[in-house]
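Convert to structure. Protein one:
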Amino acid sequence: MKKGKFLNRPLVKTSEILEGECIISRNTVKQLKAKGRGSFASRHEILGQIEEELFELKEAIHSGDLQRIEEELADIGTTCSFGIACIKANGLEW
């Protein structure tokens, strides 16, 4: 096993990074179907949603449930991606 440059960490394969991106993409599609495509109203709404997801991630980490941790990370990734899309669509501060 190759080790990373810092702290002798195991390296993450490109295929594993791409799998993570696919998980976030699938989660985004699921969330869009459930919640619709309405833009976040403001930067503060984006922050509030990320903080909510971060709280849920902390709970998952404390539970030790890796599946739940993965799900919460996907929710954070989806929120960040959608927040960027809202900015690109000039959807904020309306």
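Protein two, convert as well:
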Amino acid sequence: MIYEFTSKHTSQLIRSLIGIIHLFELQDVIKQSSELQTKEPIGYSNFPSFRAADITARLSTLPSLACTKKGLHTGFPLLIGPMVDFSFDDND
């Protein structure tokens, strides 16, 4: 009898914690979306020609970013600015 009680309440507690985690994930997505609206988009026209050529060369080496290269050449803006509030520095 005690095992059924513990098992039932443990599973309910786990479901509640999963719900809280999803809530924090949604809150983070909303926060990042609101920060994204305040950033100014930057495109190829804002870069010097040597920097645009360097970006194009780097994008050409990655097949998964071929569409990004085409988009930048057609004038689609690239958002510059990290969306991360912290960085990891491994000094060990």
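Residues 25 and 31 are 10 Å apart (CA to CA). The mean pLDDT is 75.
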